[in-house]
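Task: encode each sequence below as structure tokens.

Item 1
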Amino acid sequence: MLVAEILKGKGQAVFTLSPEAALSEACAELDRRGVGALIVCEGDEVVGVLSERDIVRAISRDGAAALSQPASHYMTTEVIFAAPTETVSVLMTRMTDRRIRHLPVLRERQLAGVVSIGDVVKCQIAEATQEAESLRSYIAAG
């Protein structure tokens, strides 16, 4: 399965944040949206990803004072992207090797969606289930 198919199924909604937004605003947005990460953008350019993990680290290092600091102080700036034409197995390897849980998807240099590790696992399970069912049907047919 390709990334484009995942986005077709889940939708292309991307929740973004300004780099100047306070960390407390980011926390509220994560809660409101029910997601684990926000894509940090300046205009149309992706400049970072701010995840729950980044926020936990910020508070661990700087305490409650971190909540008044801009997201840019704590976001991950080395953004790893996915392309719509990549396969789920390629993404799983990349996410596992890099220990990341969210990949922004770029289509022609434009933000086209976000794929999470949950999306990838869900896809892998669906493919394995379909394959197992096909094998059962083949064996049953003799």
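Item 2
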Amino acid sequence: MCRVIDLQQAVLARNEDAARELRAALAARGTVAVNLLSSPGSGKTALLEAELVLAGQRGIPAAALTADLATENDALRLARSGAPVKQVLTDGLCHLEAAMLARHLDGWLPDDTRLLFVENVGNLVCPASYDLGESLRVALASVTEGEDKPLKYPTAFGLAHLVVVTKADLADAVGFDEKSFLANIERVNPGVEVVFTSARTGEGVGQLLDRACAVLDGGAVHRPVMGVPAAGHHHGPPQTAGHGHSHEDGHLHSHGHAHGAPAELPLDAS
């Protein structure tokens, strides 16, 4: 068992080194990476397509890399936005890794790209442990997945800089308990901002783009308690202190408009 744990730690340590190198390389070219994590069927692709369309309308050079075990369906959907899109097939691997991402970006990512959205493999377990050199980590959950999703996947939601709820138009139909969901988020990631969206109705579309642009402009990110290094050790994305504004119930969340300061990780190209 010890040898297995040692191997896992070595793999994560190697990934952290690659993530630091990739973060520095992206910073040097003025690009911010956004890592999107969710379960399959969360509506992540539909929301990302809408955000990419909006980025194009605003004149923000954005690109997307999407990862799946098989098929190029998501890339074909995202390409409708007009943004540069690349599909990565992982051949059974349940997550992206920093070195893998760097290889796929090499020679493909347009020089003028300011925002790179990385749609990770639909899985809230393995991807949560791997830093991809992102500046903004986003965990998504649809209202159809249940209010206890954050408790079932505490690492994915506990390390997020932003939580996005999708398919908000179905909340009433499925009996989604918003108060319970927000309480569960607060348990695993105190103070993180939660935004509600619906790609179908347009509710909240643009908030993810706004948060990513804030990183690009040098804002400050939420600092997840789970991501604070202990005794000099750290697995997962780097963290910096951040802040936000809360509602009277103590939760950071919004419907169709922003609450709290969106966020940034220092992009140190040194």
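Check on item 2: The mean pLDDT is 86. The chain has one domain: 2-228+238-255.
End of task.
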